[in-house]
Amino acid sequence: MEPGHLRYLGWMLSDVVASTRQEVLKQLGRIFKTGVEQLGHFVDRFRPRLIEIATKDAEVSVRVAAIGVADTLRKDGMLEPDEVDAVGRLIFDSELRVRKAAATFFDNLVSASLDDQRNALGGKDAIEEALGGSDELGYESPQEEWLHIKLLAENIVAFDAQVENELGSPDFHDASVAADIMRAVAPATRISVAAHVLYERIQVVRDWKLLAGYLLYDHTVSSKSKSKAKNSQTAIKNLIRPDDSEEAALLEVMAAAVTLALSQPVDAKRSGRHENSEAQEETALELAAMIPRLLNKFGADPSTAKIVLRMEHALKLDVFQQLRQDSSRYEHLLDEISIQFNRHGDKDVLAEATAALSHARQHDELEELTDSKLALLWENAINSLRNFDKTCEIGERGDLTAEHLTDLSPVVNKISNLASVADCVDVMEAEGRSADSEGSPVEILASIVNRGTFVAIDDDIDELEDELVSWAIKACQFYFMWKLHRIEKLVRTGSDMSSEEVDQLQKVRGIFQDNLINTLSSRVIIDDIRLYATGSLCDMFTLFASLRDWTEAAGKPTKYKKLANSVGEVVPALVPELISIFDGIERSYARRTKRVLNEPADDEDPIDDDESDDEDEDEGLTKEQRFVNELKAERSLCELAAKFVMAIARQVIDKSGPNAGRLRRRLLRNQSKLGKNYAEVVAYLDEAKVDALLYGRKSKASKTAAAAKKAAPASKKPTAALSEEIVVDDEEPEDPFEEEPEPEEGSREDLRRRELLPAEDDEPEDEEGEDDRSANAESEVDSVLGD
């Protein structure tokens, strides 16, 4: 193609039509493959636009095509180093198709570097001779593929560092406390996301045992030898030796490879189902033996220990049930997991270890084995808690130093994690044997919640105090859930529950609830721990409301009268404060998302605009970070609203007193202003719609009305039905002078009349009924015309 004609293709790279840009890139790819050396001037002029399309174009298909063209230019050495980096780090892009296209570019880039290194070192045979590998060691023997793994790790770490410098590392721990402490498994990292597409493309990534051998190998090299041959071997070994960041990256890649290897579906066409099943069993057994060795080497560092622990989640434990003679391998694995649980105080490591223990306990044949390990972990945790109880005043904020808080917080965190795995009632209710610590663990934990009562000390100390309180709240919540689970079984079977046991339960519940109220009432700003305490208080009353259902279903009101009386209701005087907390989180979300809220009604408190604007906190943040903050604010709003809605539905809040119905009206004030997620949450306040929302079925009233409408024309003759269909709207004409009755105060009709809710369209079932009637009428008209 003539250069004068070629420039028109370059100009069309900026065309507004995506299909045009894509077709131009397709043609440029063909032209460049035939000989790009003669087009240097054209490439230099339009290459920046090409890289811009690959990294920023709005259409994914256009970006994919641009990455392919960029790879062609890279092979011919016509990309600048910064342009290679810009395309290479697209393996971390949010779009899957872009990541897959970038994986091809990345693979070719690493392969080119590998060829250069191999030629510089004298070829494959020279490298293997210098490494001195042995066939007896198998995948743990040094081999030429390790150079490929080293270059792979180098590029992944380099590109990840560039993305982190450009966008910032996503800070998952700045989310609300409620979300942080309830998340069992850390979210996927950039490297693990990239590893999923590299797995499909690169052979050394698919071979997870080769990665394990490289990671387990001792790469330390002796520097005592002075011979020339030895120096050459030393240079090659130093070349393949990974640093700490590369080892962490390769562990992420290996974890992704293991997960994909064990989750591959059986392909009956390529191999027999039995053979594939045996291969997966063998993989599971090998991985179970590999994880303890990896923990021995990388378990000291929390950043790598949590990655290795995550590999256990991929194990299919049915293998150990079927091959009982090999269950000793899994027992050894559980021992190593327990060691990591006792060894670390890092919450991510504890979360991963807890998830592994929960995974093991899900299988019946491993339940007893897992429970024996849990018993030892419980003993260590409770003993540590009692040691603090003996020597410190752990129920008052500000009485502990930062060092003591740093030591106590992981202990309480471990208890909260263990409580989530299995029934913990017996352990949590066990009385102490020492006079210095006689109370049960749950009483100690409930008293720790009182540390949430705010007293200004120091910002660093306050952060440690709030973290400790959050773990204590979580542990108490799990205790009450397990306790009521036992009570449910007891009531369903008609068994007795002693009055002393009920009194003790009410005592602990009273301490816990009072301390929650102290925590949320003592704070002025809407911080994380205040939100978490508010939600936990609602959860407690909602949980205990189940006692009402169980005792009524048992049909023995006298026998379980004391249990039924313990349901209770949130103190009506607390409702205004709960509404003020909701006001704060609602305004925060509205400011971040630039939403305009409805004005309060005459009987509601006016809007307080004196609080600091959240926009000041977002200054200097990137677009992505602002979006993350918006999502966090929406999640906090919807979570709090959901807890209020459940408590209202269970009739444990907003039911009696001078403020009855006020919280419901406040939740509905901005139902149409805060997005669809919030609207869906508060829609459950309409009891008539709960069945339709939860189960996709119509209410009884709407079903009866629809059936009556369908039955009426069916009982008539076709011609008569046509006449009646035409005049059906005139059978009962509405009197324009008739006054409508006043709707009940607080009902949805009353809120719509006061313009606190938008006018609602006809119900879907009514529309369906009208469509049915219209269809019947049209068919009957055709019948009449035909006659």
UniProtKB/TrEMBL annotation:
GO MF term set: chromatin binding
PANTHER family linked: LD34181P-RELATED (PTHR11199:SF0), STROMAL ANTIGEN (PTHR11199)
Biased composition (Acidic residues): 600-619, 726-744, 758-771
CC terms in the record's Gene Ontology section: chromatin; cohesin complex; nucleus
SUPFAM superfamilies: ARM repeat (SSF48371)
Domain of life: Eukaryota
Comp. bias intervals (Basic and acidic residues): 745-757
SCD domain residues: 1-53
Transmembrane segments: none
A biological process term (GO) from this entry: sister chromatid cohesion
Protein's UniProt name: SCD domain-containing protein
Chain segments carrying region Disordered: 596-622, 706-787
Pfam family, one: SCD
InterPro entries on file: ARM-type_fold (IPR016024), Cohesin_Scc3/SA (IPR039662), HEAT_SCC3-SA (IPR056396), SCD (IPR020839)
Low complexity composition-biased segments: 706-725
